[in-house]
Amino acid sequence: MLKRKRNRSRRGYALAGLIALAACAMLFLMGRPPICACGTVELWHGAIDSGNSQHLSDWYSLSHIIHGFLFYLAAWALMRRQPRGMRFAAAVAVESLWEILENSPVIIDRYRTATIALGYSGDSILNSMSDIGMMALGFAFAARAPVWLTVLAGIGFELLALWVIRDNLTLNVLMLVWPVEAVKAWQSAF
């Protein structure tokens, strides 16, 4: 029984890898650039400019780590009987679908009109794959860390991003779903 569960978990991890590869292929077919149009690849891009969402990591990587925390919680609650690998595959599927949706014209236009990301042109494929990796890191952390530490880390990441760039996962979702002009003005004053 234990061996069977371990095999299903391994299949889940393999499935997660295939899902990420499929997302990469889909982004390529959508015409997303493989790397930043600037021609360089940066490990960290801390400036708030057109290089955002183009390199391996930036301030928005924190929100993808938080996705991992949240997806771990959701998978634990909804798929409790499934091995961790299968839960992980479900999390990678959700994150991959978001990366594809986020790089569709409708969401790119929504970011341009409803948020402070006026010149946003979508993610490079490299950044999208890194975002999936950041979610995976968050998922792995949440799977091993005490709940209180995961919650504290999530709050810390949100507050850090809010302080440094006046944006975070919470504000990003708010501004995409229900834009608040006062928040947009406050963020633009940065």
UniProtKB/TrEMBL annotation:
Q: Which Pfam families match?
A: DUF2585
PROSITE patterns hit by this protein: PROKAR_LIPOPROTEIN
* The entry's keywords: Cell membrane, Membrane, Transmembrane, Transmembrane helix
Q: What InterPro entries does this protein map onto? A: DUF2585 (IPR019691)
Q: Which domain of life is it from?
A: Bacteria
Coiled coil segments of this chain: none
Task: Give me the segments passing through the membrane.
Answer: 61-79, 145-165
Q: Which cellular component terms (GO) are annotated to the entry?
A: plasma membrane
**Bilayer topology:** Multi-pass membrane protein
Keyword S-adenosyl-L-methionine tagged:
no
Is Electron transport tagged as a keyword? Answer: no
Q: Where in the cell is it found?
A: Cell membrane
Supply the NCBIfam families for this chain: PRK00944.1
Q: Which family does it belong to?
A: Belongs to the UPF0314 family.
* Name under which the protein is recorded: UPF0314 protein ATN00_16385
- The organism is Sphingobium baderi
Q: What is the lineage of its organism?
A: Bacteria, Pseudomonadati, Pseudomonadota, Alphaproteobacteria, Sphingomonadales
